[in-house]
Amino acid sequence: MRILITGGAGFIGSAVVRYIINHTQDSVLNIDKLTYAGNLTSLDSINNNPRYSFKQLDICNQAGLKQVFTEYQPDAVMHLAAESHVDRAIDAPAAFIQTNIVGTYTLLEVARQYWQTLERDKKLAFRFHHISTDEVYGDLGGTDELFTETTAYAPSSPYSASKASSDHLVRAWYRTYGLPTLITNCSNNYGPYHFPEKLIPLMILNALKGFPLPVYGDGSQIRDWLFVEDHARALYAVITQGKIGETYNIGGYNEKTNLEVVQTICGLLEELVPNKPDGVKSYKDLIHYVKDRPGHDLRYAIDASKITRELGWRPQETFESGIRKTVAWYLQNEAWWHPILEGLYKKNDYGRLG
Ligand code: NAD
Questions:
Q1: Contact partners, residue 345, CB within 8 Å, separation at least 6
Q2: Most buried of the four, 50, 151, 223, 351, by CB within 10 Å?
């Protein structure tokens, strides 16, 4: 297959690109605007592979997209490009509306026009896979059922509302025009190459410097954590075996409170980096509770039984094995995260990092 991937320089997109180049014979064209969240060094390990290519492009640029489809002639699209950080959406929602809604619409239209020109066999085989989040379902009470593929949408934040809108557009393009679409809704990812402002890398890197570990509210919010490489495998299973028009939930069966996650990281650092920054007796002493995020969802938890039953996918990592790999990766890959942190300090964006 020739797969067009959007957002392949981001956290999950780069894991998908690495997975496809390393584990399949497919080719990838990665198109990415390279916003603050895009980082081509995450692709250094496969950058010279002849099956991989890159083009810097905004998915809102219709003419640019048309040219890419005409020249590359993709067999499938995996759409991951998005503005993805909830805190940034609360501060400045405009980019989320633009990229997540207008950008998805633009990509759908260009893909539809291209798909309509394909000859019969290629047309039947074509797939448009939209990668989305479990946050579109809103949040759950402590004892509620898990999110299934038929849970009603009830997004709470500008981020999740923009992702919900894009999911609706994708479903409409399937129902109205017959574009062969697939949608996946996944829980919180973690793992290598995660941008340093997100919870897990933020805590690891702040702890290493002896900085406070900011926990929203009382840290009781529950997330279902999935190792990013498990997500990449799931996405490949869906694009190759998924049924057109269907939605698949993807989750890790790893519900943890934010406080448990931070405490686990502190425990691993005690073991792996016993030589602590000056004045720090225990990493856990750095935990510091801050004012809760407005509209903060209490609990997300995914029922991923459909993708297991129908496509045979299940996560390979437990939270314990995945978080250990993740902490070890950040300890070994300062060359990746140090320049990003420097950039955030320079732009005075450090407020986000606690
Ligand atoms: P990310 O922020 O790390 O990466 C997003 C990528 O998209 C970046 O490389 C960025 O440069 C690119 N991009 C942004 N705007 C663009 C535009 N207008 N045109 C082209 N490229 C653009 O995000 P991520 O965490 O890798 O998430 C990828 C997708 O998966 C998103 O759609 C997100 O909603 C979804 N998702 C994320 C999680 C998670 O836990 N991170 C969970 C479920 C679903």
A1: none
A2: 223
Which residues lie below 8 Å from residue 106, measured CB to CB, with a gap of 6+?
Answer: 59, 60, 61, 62, 65
Q: Please choose from 4, 6, 12 the residue to mutate so as to test ligand 1's pocket, defined by most ligand atoms within 8 A of CB.
A: 12
Inside any domain, residue 266: no
Q: Is 231 in the pocket of ligand 1 (CB under 6 A)?
A: no
pTM of whole model > 0.90? yes
Index of the ligand 1 atom closest to the CA of residue 188: 40
- What is the block-wise mean pLDDT of the chain (354 residues), using blocks of 10 residues? 98 98 98 96 97 98 98 98 92 96 98 98 98 94 85 95 98 98 97 94 96 92 95 98 98 94 98 96 95 83 96 97 98 95 70 42
Task: List, in sequence order, every residue forming a beta bridge with 261; answer none if it has no partner.
Answer: none
Candidate of 17, 31, 35, 107 to mutate for ligand 1, largest count of ligand atoms within 8 Å of Cβ = 35
CB atoms within 10 A of CB 212: 14
Q: Is the CB of 254 under 6 A from ligand 1?
A: no
Domain that holds residue 133: 2-194+227-252+300-317
In a domain, 61, yes or no: yes
Least Cα distance to 314 among 241, 188, 226, 244 occurs for 226
Nearest C-alpha neighbor of 7 from the set 232, 172, 178: 232
230 is an active site residue: no
The atom number, within ligand 1, closest to the CA of 38 reads: 9
83 is catalytic: no
pLDDT on residue 297: 81
Q: Which CATH number covers residue 18?
A: 3.40.50.720
For residue 251, the model assigns a pLDDT of: 96
